[in-house]
Design brief:
With 403 residues, this protein is an alpha+beta fold. It is built from 16 helices and eight strands. The strands form two sheets. Strands 2, 3, 4, 5, 6 and 7 form a six-stranded antiparallel β-sheet that branches. It has a two-stranded antiparallel sheet with strand order 1-8.
Length: 403
């Protein structure tokens, strides 16, 4: 898909360059502009499907009763409808219909059978429903047992009529959308998610407080105090964003191990109090530079010192950018897997991400439980962004424009 989109973009750019270079008429340029918009829209739609489909598939799997992971069968080029059909099945929990029948009706049906019919066996409730042709009429009948080589069926309505007929195939199974909501309480009861959530909340709260405090102090120094080399130091700080986390991982691990912090939360929390995120400092500094210096001067006349100006004048006006940093930091540490995997070894200290991995290893053959657990663990960050998205966007835009 990406390769196709790339070639479409290249072709349209070539056509645009050809039109410009040869001074073709306005109508031709307009048509090519519309064509480029259509191609761009197609690319966006395909990218949206590639992003949204796994999420919707996981939501569908969380309410499915199927334990084995559903896989996409191998298809040949041109089997587009088979691909769409398979994807649709993964999104909606369409399964074989099952019904419950009173045990008295089941006993009565087997009691009315002649003993000469053959060996009898009963199915367990709930009973699978099949589309069976009886006397030229298609009926939805529930399979309640076997009698010899034949199956014993019973109507699903109140009449409770019984029929002996040949075994049905899987294609004759009546399909229905079945939501298995019990997956959610089952996942909670089978995994120690209460402890995982508490551990993640500890990391989120401690790191969020540290990120806000350190970023505020450092950004205040870069935005309000003039000293030699200020801009160069800020450039050096921003340049650390280009360093991959893996570059400093081994030195950090050796230092934390020698300090005796391995296996504790200290390697995951201490760095937050030393402005470990240049991005947070950048956002805060840009926002502070957008505030007029006259506010500082007025506060100095009233007797405020540097910290008084910061906490009584600047911080109260920085709600948007502080909420932005709070949200981004909280979501990052709620979803953190990499650093927790490196520094934690006791499963009782696992956050949500590692807890889901441990749950996956234990119930690897039950995709429904895994999907239900994942969906529940996604709820807190999604709700946070839902309630604070206004402040998040506002803080990001203002910080990027001001200064």
């Amino acid at each position: 898909m990406i390769i196709i989109a790339f070639f479409l973009v290249i072709i349209n750019l070539f056509l645009w360059a050809f039109v410009v270079s040869n001074s073709v008429g306005v109508m031709t340029k307009q048509r090519l502009a519309r064509r480029r918009k259509i191609v761009a829209l197609i690319i966006i739609v395909f990218m949206a499907i590639a992003i949204i489909y796994p999420v919707l598939s996981m939501l569908g799997g969380s309410v499915s009763s199927k334990q084995v992971s559903r896989t996409v069968p191998e298809v040949k080029l041109g089997d587009f409808f088979n691909i769409v059909k398979t994807m649709a099945k993964n999104l909606v929990p369409i399964e074989g219909k099952r019904v419950k029948i009173d045990q008295e009706d089941i006993d009565r049906a087997f009691a009315e059978l002649p003993a000469s019919e053959g060996k009898q066996s009963r199915e367990n409730s709930p009973y699978s429903v099949y589309n069976i042709e009886i006397d030229g009429e298609d009926l939805h009948l529930a399979k309640i047992g076997k009698v010899g080589k034949q199956w014993l069926y019973m109507t699903t309505d109140s009449s409770r009529d019984t029929y002996l007929a040949a075994p049905a195939s899987e294609e004759q199974r009546v399909k229905a959308v079945v939501f298995t909501w019990s997956n959610f309480p089952d996942a909670l009861s089978k995994g120690d998610f209460g402890r995982y959530v508490i551990n993640s909340m500890i990391l989120v709260v401690i790191n969020t407080i540290g990120a806000l405090l350190s970023a505020t102090l450092v950004a205040y120094g870069f935005s309000r105090f003039k000293f030699k080399g200020r801009n160069w130091l800020f450039i050096v700080l921003l340049s650390t964003m280009m360093l991959p986390a893996q570059v400093s991982l081994i030195p950090s691990f050796i230092i934390y191990t020698k300090l005796g912090w391995y296996g504790t939360y200290l390697p995951l929390t201490v760095a937050a109090y030393f402005a470990a995120s240049p991005w947070n400092v950048f956002l805060m500094r840009q926002f502070f530079m957008g505030l007029p210096l006259e506010l500082d001067e007025a506060a100095k006349i009233d007797g405020c010192g540097p910290f008084g100006i910061l906490f009584k004048v600047i911080v109260p006006q920085s709600t948007a950018v502080m909420l932005t940093i709070t949200l981004s930091t909280a979501v990052f540490w709620w979803n953190d897997y990499f650093y927790s995997l490196i520094y934690l070894q006791d499963q009782k200290m696992y956050p949500v991400a590692l807890g889901l991995t441990a749950f996956d290893a234990k119930y690897f053959n039950n995709s429904a439980l895994k999907a239900a657990a994942t969906v529940m663990m996604l709820v807190p960050p999604v709700m946070m962004f839902f309630f604070f998205q206004k402040f998040f966007i506002q803080g990001t835009v203002i910080s990027g424009v001001k200064g």
